[in-house]
Design a protein that fits this description.
It is a single chain. The protein is α/β, with parallel strands linked by helices. The chain has one domain: NADP-dependent oxidoreductase domain (TIM Barrel, Alpha-Beta Barrel), CATH 3.20.20. A hairpin with a 5-residue loop joins strand 1 and strand 2. Bound molecules: adenosine-2'-5'-diphosphate (A2P). The site of adenosine-2'-5'-diphosphate has 20 residues, from helix 10. InterPro entries: AKR, AKR4A/B, Aldo/ket_reductase_CS, NAD(P)_OxRdtase_dom_sf, NADP_OxRdtase_dom. Keywords: NADP, Oxidoreductase.
Length: 324
């Protein structure tokens, strides 16, 4: 009798009841790349079959993503905007009860959309100036009014501006705080995650609380100011990839997939976008997974730039509540 061969699972159901594609395209690059290049990369991705796109107010790619979506609709690459899953993020300069809804409305206008699928608090701190830049100065950071900001996020859902809401860069401790007052629990925590920073503790916590983990910099954020080449330079990963006949990037993305998280590799190159999708029809062996789980662990984005003697964060441990 023929065995029924299941299709690979490429979606997850969030605690909001909405589904989210596990593979998403990241659109953050600093310095910001020419937007015609970014637009054509997003269009290539849609052509290849990507349906999930991750942006943020601070990335300056919202208008570009919006243009690419309109082009894709015009060209008939997608039948409807509803076929896509779009995430954007609240910049920390707007992390305040009454600024959240206006900030999302501004993002929606930039995107040319009526709603986003997922809206995230970008980082658990408040910035005391209106500059939208990754060049955050530690002395401009103050504590986040978590309750007020989360109430603003919940209002986004009630107004139909966001289907799901969540957070990014939150520790177990900060997630517990949100959960203590949330009427809508966070659906997602988007965090740095790759074989050299596997987030075991946070993933256990999130699994217990029904919060989906999404991996940013799943390749270690090569070329990004918050990333490094450490993942691509890792000898053990090179060996696993070579023995398997896969690329190192594919090994990392397949690993993320097998952990049950969603993953958001950034590439503006059509071949690499394609390569990064080709991870659903093979698997890592027990031995390969064992080798990968034994890799020494350390965060790449430590947030040293956010630390100062008399600022909000006095040490890197403070930034991440000891999860370093
Ligand atoms: P590029 O945009 O030129 O493809 P991360 O997703 O961890 O943030 O990593 C993104 C970095 O990794 C970018 O510099 C991107 O460059 C590069 N990259 C993405 N996919 C691949 C791949 N399959 N092989 C090599 N480099 C890749």
């Amino acid at each position: 009798m023929a065995m029924a061969v299941g299709l690979p699972k490429t979606l997850t159901i969030l605690n909001s009841g909405h589904s989210m594609p596990l593979l998403g395209m990241g659109t953050a690059a600093f310095p910001v790349e020419p937007q015609d290049l970014v637009e054509s990369a997003i269009l290539s991705a849609i052509e290849l079959g990507y349906t999930h796109f991750d942006t943020a107010s601070v990335y300056q790619t919202e208008p570009t993503l919006g243009r690419a979506i309109r082009q894709a609709l015009d060209r008939g690459l997608i039948a409807s905007r509803d076929n896509l899953f779009i995430t954007t993020k609240l910049w920390i300069g707007h992390a305040e009860r009454n600024l959240v809804v206006p900030a999302l409305r501004e993002s929606l206008q930039a995107l040319g959309l009526d709603y986003v699928d997922l809206y995230l608090i970008h980082f658990p701190a408040k910035l005391e100036n209106s500059e939208k830049s990754f060049g955050v100065r530690s002395e401009d950071l103050v504590p986040l009014d978590m309750k007020g900001t989360w109430q603003g996020m919940e209002e986004c859902v009630r107004l139909g501006l966001a289907k799901s809401i969540g957070v990014s860069n939150f520790s177990c401790k900060k997630l517990s705080q949100i959960l203590s007052f949330a009427t809508i629990p966070p659906a997602v925590n988007q965090v740095e995650m790759h074989p050299l920073w596997q987030q075991s503790k946070l993933r256990d916590f999130c699994a217990e609380k029904g919060i989906h983990v999404s991996a940013y910099s799943p390749l270690g954020g090569k070329n990004a100011p918050w990333g490094s080449n450490a993942v691509f330079d890792c000898e053990e990963l090179k060996q696993v990839a070579q023995a398997k006949g896969k690329t190192l990037a594919q090994i990392c993305l397949r690993w993320a997939y097998e952990q049950g998280v969603s993953f958001l590799p950034k590439s503006y190159n059509k071949e690499r976008l394609k390569e990064n999708m080709e991870i659903f029809d093979w698997e890592l062996s027990k031995d390969e997974l064992k080798k990968m789980s034994a890799l020494p662990q350390s965060r790449i984005f430590r947030g040293e730039n956010l630390v100062s003697a008399d600022g909000l964060f006095k040490s890197v441990e403070d930034v991440w509540d000891g999860e370093v």
